[in-house]
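Could you please consider the sequence and fold appended to this message?
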Amino acid sequence: MWTHSTKWQNHLSQSDKDVLEKFRKYAKITGVIFVILGLIGIIFPLALSIATVAFASYLMVLGGLFSGYFTWVTDKKDWLGWLKSLVLFMMGLFILYYPISGIAAIGLMLVFYFFMDAFAGFALAFSMRPQRLWWIWLFNAFISLVLGIIFMVGWPFSSTYLVGLFIGISLFFDGIALLAGGTIWGRLGK
């Protein structure tokens, strides 16, 4: 699928080169932010676990409120819409007041996330294989797979620190991969 960059560069239009240049810039900025957030999560895993649960619970509360508003505006008699709004709102509040249970639930969701991240990372790495730094994406996918397996084995007891630690590790390696991707794709646009 991927060919050598000099052969590929000849077929790029100016707008494609502009898009690649923007991607290079923003991939590097995002990569640095992810590396910093990842390091914070690795150093302070409980703090990142609590921040993750708080973020998810506030999203659920807001989702319940918006869903309730949408049900009010579209069909006030839609009892399934009201039920959905109530469940989202109440689950968000429950997780806010009982964050340890929320951390365990998010831990289980993270098992699925890490497996899906690994699958996508392997697919991207093998599609980039002729490129110079393709192995970084492969390594990132392997790390996600290992994190998913470790998390699944220790769940739910180790969730309090593993949620923050593993999100931190994943963010760190995703940041490294974005920095490498920004470098590779930036060269293609020149």
